Amino acid sequence: MVENEIKKIHYGKSHTFADSMKISVCFKKRPIFHSELADGEIDVISVSNPKIIVHDCRFKVDGVTKTIENTEFKFDNAFNDIQSNEELYFYQVRPILDNIFNQGIVTIFAYG
Predict the structure, then answer these.
(1) Which of 9, 10, 13, 28 has the highest CB neighbour number within 10 Å of its CB?
(2) Residues of the domain holding 28
(3) Residue at 51 is within a domain
(4) pLDDT tens digits, one per residue of 20-69
């Protein structure tokens, strides 16, 4: 069911350079690990820049019928698990390097 939902997702818009915004919040999806796949886990996150979609597998009120509830979260940039860290660097870090080296104030917070 999740695979069918993922097929419905359209490709997102092109990424925005971080220096064109005062604050930039981005998301980078990590690939699902082989150990997770071996344990029967499924990938329930889709990325369509600038948003991510979480596909939540649920049962309807009858307790039998399966359904998927999609929840979207919007960011300034969203990178999928296939896109490289170099691409993230190109859009998020490289544009603000001049500011860093010219006495600017920059904070980069990375989690995960």
Answers:
(1) 28
(2) 2-101
(3) yes
(4) 998 999 999 999 999 999 999 888 999 999 999 999 988 888 888 888 88
**Distance set, CA 1 to CA 44, 59, 69 (Å):** 10, 12, 11
> Which amino acid does the sequence have at 37?
L
CB atoms within 10 A of CB 9: 14
What is the number of domains present in the chain? 1
pTM over 0.85: no
What's the CATH number where 70 sits? Answer: 3.40.850.10
Q: Extract the tokens encoding 17.
A: 């350079």
In a domain, 109, yes or no: no
The DSSP output letter for 13 is P
Distance separating alpha carbons of residues 8 and 68, to the nearest angstrom: 13
